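Q: I'm building a small set of examples for a reading group on sequence design. Run inverse folding on the following structure and report the sequence directly after it, with nothing in between.
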């Protein structure tokens, strides 16, 4: 069974600049690719789970979300890193654009995207799963799916910790950025393996 890290996108892997209408404006946070490459090399699945309501709000079409996610993958690949799977939720209850304006089970902190990942990849280990993101909804997703939650201070993370955005949460770890988040996860996985003892 393979450990898994579920990763938010904006403010966690790429810089938070609001709704990205120009695909070329999507830029990685410094060190993000190298951090993901460490997960790849350690045999830890890296899976994107991201709320993307731009299409629901009428800012752009759903195909634009795909282009943004492709851009992310391309930037990671330039540095030898990869995401093992990509999931996004385009829904927002009450939004003006059909068919996206619905209440769904995939919008974080709901667990739909995580459950889809587990269903499609039965080798993923629920007992060794993590969620990394910059919002309260990411930490709450971790709680809802039984994972450990890591809140990064990039993106909206600092505002969450100050109580200025969304709501206060208590993650398992507060990380300066994705680099220190992955450092902590790999250390935690090593400690859990040591605690388990020889097979």
């Amino acid at each position: 069974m393979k450990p898994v890290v579920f990763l938010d996108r904006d403010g966690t892997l790429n810089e938070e600049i609001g709704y990205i209408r120009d695909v070329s404006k999507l830029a990685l946070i410094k060190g993000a690719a190298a951090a993901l490459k460490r997960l790849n090399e350690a045999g830890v699945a890296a899976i994107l789970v991201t709320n993307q309501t731009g299409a629901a709000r009428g800012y752009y079409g759903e195909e634009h979300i795909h282009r943004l996610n492709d851009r992310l993958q391309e930037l990671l690949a330039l540095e030898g890193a990869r995401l093992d799977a990509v999931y996004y939720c385009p829904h927002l209850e009450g939004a003006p654009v059909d068919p996206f304006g619905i209440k769904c089970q995939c919008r974080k902190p709901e667990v739909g995207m995580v459950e889809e990942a587990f269903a499609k990849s039965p080798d993923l280990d629920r007992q060794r799963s993590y969620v990394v993101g910059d919002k309260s909804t990411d930490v709450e997703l971790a709680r809802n799916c039984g994972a450990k939650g890591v809140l990064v201070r990039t993106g909206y993370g600092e505002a969450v910790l100050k109580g200025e955005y969304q709501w206060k949460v208590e993650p398992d770890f507060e990380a300066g950025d994705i680099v220190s988040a992955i450092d902590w996860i790999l250390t935690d996985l090593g400690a859990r393996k040591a605690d388990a003892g020889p097979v």
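The domain at 2-194 is CATH 3.40.50.1000 (Rossmann fold).
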